[in-house]
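step=predict obj=Bicaudal D-related protein 1 n=444
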Amino acid sequence: MGDSVVVAAQVKQRPDRVLDDGVTTVTAVAAATAVVGKGSVDTSLCVTGDVCALPDVVNGSTVLLERCTEPGTAMETERALSAELQTLRQEVRESGHSRPQDEELLSAMREQVARLNEKERTLEQRLQCVCEENSELKGNLSSLHTRLALHEQQSQQHIQQLAEAWREVEVARGRTQELQSQVEALQEEASMQEGSHGNASLLSELELSLDTLGLGTDREQLTQEVESILRLLLPLTQNPQEVGGGQNDLQGMVAQLKNLAQELTQQHSSQQLSGSIVEVGSDQSESPAQIQDLKDQVCVLQEENCELRLLSECCRVEEEHLHQAIRDRDEAISKKTLMEAELVRSKNDMMSLNNQLLEAIQRKLELSQELEAWQDDIQVILNQQLRTQQQCDQSQRKPVASHPLSFLRRSRRLSNAPVCVSQTTTTTDRNGPSPWRDWLKRGK
């Protein structure tokens, strides 16, 4: 009783060394079984309570106690317990060895997961940056499109303004040409009035006046009238002169009247010209700001025209490069077609040569067959001749019979033998040599 209590106390004090020290556990179980055999129930309870500390022995403790109560099974139970103890120790050792490996695997997996998470974060950041750059590029593209549209609108407006300015310039040129034509017409009218009207009208009036003088008027009265007309017209001129008097000065007064008429016509034409010039000057003075604006617009349009010329030059250079590339492509295509045609021609030549070669091979085969047939015919002829010769020899070697007509039979045989030979030769000549004769003819 005391020993079992001590063993139970040892098991209770050191439950962790039960798996490491099998002897102690076995002795403890043996002592427990011995005590149980004596009928002590308290120690069995202590042993079961101490053994319950082991996780793998709890389930089978009741079964073991039942087996231990039976007589003669202590050694068997001890052996079974020792075997189970060994298996448990081995499992614990294996689990202890596998735990560091599992921990290493877990740590490696955790590190790999951390790296993958970090890569995922970096990829997400890069994707976000790329999306932002894409949005920025889209915004820049839209802004460029808007700017391009604005520039196109401005260029269209400038082109329209330039066209309007050119139209206004054409209108101004037309007006100036009209004014110049009017001035020229006025000058022509003035010259015509100076040359024709003055001469014609004054001379006609003088002639009429002279005619009237011839009708009975006095010369003095005519001179007085001319003098009065001159005195009335002289204040209208810029250089008034004195009127000559007297009867002898009638022609001078007429010339003076003519000059006065010319001066008056020149003054009238100069007044008209000055009025037209004043009108033109007033029209020009009314719109200096517009002219300045038009000049500025013309300068801007000239700059834009320069830019457009540069762009057109660049486009022309690009078009030249494009045309050169197109020409190169056309040349390459033409060369390709020529090469393809040459290749087709060479293929046709090769096919014709192959056909000629096949024909030559066929001809050679035919000739070889004819040669074999000729050889066979010659062999047949030779065999027939040998056979006939052997038959003749055999017939000659036969013994002479005792019949009196045997001599005649022998002579008949001898006479018939060459006939047979000749017949065989003629038949062979008729039938056999025909192919080789044809072959010889073809060879010739």
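step=describe
Residues 1-54, 213-217, 414-433 have pLDDT under 50 and may be disordered.
step=end
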